[in-house]
Automatic annotation (TrEMBL):
It comes from the Bacteria. It comes from Streptomyces siderophoricus. InterPro entries: Pectin_lyase_fold/virulence (IPR011050). This is Uncharacterized protein.
Length: 196
């Protein structure tokens, strides 16, 4: 278990350390807004990301905690999760508890808040809001996404899936709210049906 002070540098270093250690539980500062002023990952094939790519099992637990891209920062998504479906050596598994991601901007890339590229994402009592991308303004997923008592709101896609875009895999929404996104809340690659 790693306690992460309320600063961009501390959060970036904690994710780097967790990846190097093969995974970790990160305890984020309660009522803290971690403001990302620059990208800390080239994002592999997915474009830049505000945090280092998640390549191991990492849990981030907060309490009314937010991770946001600074309003004057260049465009980058907040988080990319890399797994074996896309990156054979990666085993990215992200669990978020009581953490909100906001103001991600993947530009022409996918997943403004989260790009789940072959890993898995589980979110409880958290959310993604106000983010942008070509596909999956809030979240883009290739594999497994599970959300419980969480939300995706106020996000925008220039092509499809303003809230969530499911390219492949499963999306499970339990007591969760996906609303107020443009041009739509959810979309999926044919022949898959939209998850919500």
């Amino acid at each position: 278990m790693v306690i992460v002070p309320c600063s961009e540098t501390a959060l970036v270093n904690a994710v780097d350390g967790a990846n190097a250690a093969g995974g970790a539980d990160l305890i984020l500062a309660p009522f803290c807004t971690y403001t990302l002023t620059g990208a800390h990952s080239t994002g592999g094939s997915g474009g830049p990301a505000g945090l280092p790519n998640i390549t191991t099992p990492i849990t981030m637990s907060g309490l009314a905690t937010e991770i946001t891209r600074a309003s004057d920062a260049p465009a980058f998504r907040i988080i990319e999760v890399d797994g074996p479906a896309q990156f054979p050596a990666a085993q990215g598994q992200l669990t978020l508890a009581t953490v909100t991601l906001s103001n991600g901007d993947a530009g022409l890339g996918v997943g403004g808040g989260i790009a789940n590229l072959g890993g898995s994402v589980t979110m409880t009592a958290g959310g993604v809001r106000g983010s942008r991308a070509s596909y999956g303004g809030g979240i883009y997923t290739d594999t497994a996404l599970t959300m419980t008592a969480s939300s995706v709101t106020g996000s925008t896609a220039t092509v499809n899936g303003g809230g969530i875009y499911r390219n492949a895999g499963s999306v499970t929404l339990l007591a969760s709210n996906v609303s107020g996104n443009a041009p739509n809340n959810c979309a999926a690659t044919a022949p898959l049906t939209a998850p919500c």
